[in-house]
């Protein structure tokens, strides 16, 4: 059972990193630091969007408009960290 817990914790940790990378990449594209017309950058951006958008969309529906600031990745990361800690705390050993 500990192997399954370790796998779940690792998947949650990796998904948190995917969310962080997606947020940083969106900032870099917004400030024209990286060119989104580059095929490689567009492919990575599309992959990150497809991985994160299904989890971020329900959170965005409940958040008020903050004038262009999107805090849904922060809320999702907090929820994932809470879930990770909950799994570690209450997993039967």
Topology readout:
Layout: H1 2-30, H2 39-62, H3 72-90
Describe the structure.
With 93 residues, the chain is mainly α. It has one domain (2-90). It is built from 3 helices and no strands. The longest helix has 29 residues, at 2-30. The radius of gyration is 16 Å and the shape is globular.
Q: In this structure, how is the largest beta sheet organized?
A: none
> Could you report the average pLDDT, rounded to the nearest whole number?
94
- What is the count of structural domains? 1
Q: Count the beta strands.
A: 0
Helix content: over 70%
Order of helices and strands: HHH
Oligomer: single chain
Q: Provide the gyration radius in Å.
A: 16 Å
Approximate shape: globular
> What ranges have pLDDT less than 50 throughout 5 or more consecutive residues?
none
Ends distance: 7 Å
Helical/strand content category: mainly alpha
Fraction in beta strands: under 5%
Number of helices: 3
Provide a compact summary of the structure.
With 93 residues, the chain is mostly helical. It is 77% helix and 0% strand.
Features:
93 residues, mainly alpha, 77% helix, globular
């Amino acid at each position: 059972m500990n192997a399954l817990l370790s796998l779940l914790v690792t998947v949650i940790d990796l998904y948190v990193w995917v969310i962080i990378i997606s947020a940083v990449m969106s900032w870099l594209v917004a400030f024209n630091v990286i060119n989104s017309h580059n095929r490689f950058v567009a492919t990575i951006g599309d992959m990150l969007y497809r991985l994160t958008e299904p989890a971020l969309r329900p959170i965005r529906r409940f958040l008020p408009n903050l004038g262009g600031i999107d805090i849904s990745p922060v809320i999702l990361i907090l929820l994932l960290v809470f879930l990770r800690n909950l799994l570690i705390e209450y997993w039967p050993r």
